Amino acid sequence: MHKEQREFFRFDVSLPVYFEPMGSSGACLQVDKTQLIEPREAERLDAANSQLESLFEDEVHLQNGGVQLFDEFNQKLAFMAWLVESIVEGKNPTAHPEFQQKKHEQAQYKRPEGKGSSKMIPLLQAFYLSIDNAILECVEVVDKSISGQVFMFHMPIGSLFSSQDYIANLEVIAKQGNWLASVIEKLIFKFNYYETLLNKLKRAYQNLSEYEKWPVERINLAAGGFSLMMKEDYQVGETLCALFLMDEQFVFSQAECVFVENNRTGNTPVRDGKRTAFKFTCIAAEDEAHIVRYLMSKELELRSLE
Fold first, then answer.
1. How large is the angle between the packed helices 120-143 and 179-204, nearest 10 degrees?
2. What angle do CA 57, 76, 111 make, to 5 degrees?
3. How does strand 216-222 pair with strand 225-230?
4. Residue 6 pLDDT greater than 60, yes or no
5. To 5 degrees, how large is the angle CA 271–CA 277–CA 279?
6. What letter does residue 150 receive in the DSSP assignment?
7. Average pLDDT of 207-234?
């Protein structure tokens, strides 16, 4: 089938769909960074990072291995931060040339081991596991992104890590100048900052991520675009981001409105909306091919019933 035939081969299908107007920046399905990051908390994060740098310069703990141990925690948190911040920016870290290297480095770090009755080891082990789980979740989100641009979150919103579940007075000891307590407190703050940001992403992308709740629309679909009855008012030239779920595969596109039905007059209610047509302005070749295969299979199904 030639390209022209593919674009104009149309068929009516019922599909779960998700539409969202394209942002003013031209970004698709991306939450504004300013809605997620509070300046005051970002300033506190900068302060915690600066304090960690100073603590890691302590000669005594450089020699006894304390700095090396907690720098591994810090490196794991840096990887988590990179993943979360990439998603916030709408960038796919898996496309970065250093992604696999950074991911491999995480496997080199080992969970702290220890014996005795100290409450510090259970705290560090639980903290380490919490960081690991958060990283695994972020990696899964970016690995399963749609076209490297659309991120979905399927894990529930997590609770923040608390040292009080293990050591009741860690913060008090840190304020007294204890090096170990100070380092752990700063690392936990850093982790909770990014865990909070991850939770905000889950809330912001909830409607998108719950694709089983997407409305099923009757759409006249082709490889070059689509039309349907819409209650939302679109103007010719306006753009939207569209996701279709067909045969358990997501199809992502950017589309421009090219036609809006305007033959209704007066105050006549538009119960089912207006016929609105869009042309794809950005769609991957494999998604275009999947649309054609899907439409042809639906046409064959219909013919078999005749």
1. 30
2. 95
3. antiparallel
4. no
5. 155
6. B
7. 95
Predicted confidence (pLDDT) per residue in 158-193, tens digit:
899 999 999 999 999 999 999 999 999 999 999 999
Which token pair is 265?
A: 């007059």
**Chain-centre distance of CA 296, in angstroms?**
33
CATH code at 3-26+211-305: 2.40.10.220
Q: Is the pLDDT of residue 194 over 90?
A: yes
DSSP state of 113: -
- pLDDT score of 78: 96
217 Cβ partners below 8 Å, 6+ apart?
14, 15, 17, 228
| Whether the predicted pLDDT of 113 surpasses 70 | yes
Contact status, residue 247 vs residue 301, Cβ threshold 8 Å: no
Query: Measured between alpha carbons, how far is 216 from 234 in angstroms, rounded to an integer?
Result: 19
Per-domain residue ranges of the chain: 3-26+211-305, 33-204
Closest CA to 167 of 117, 215, 217, 98: 117
| Helix intervals (H) in 205-284 | 206-209
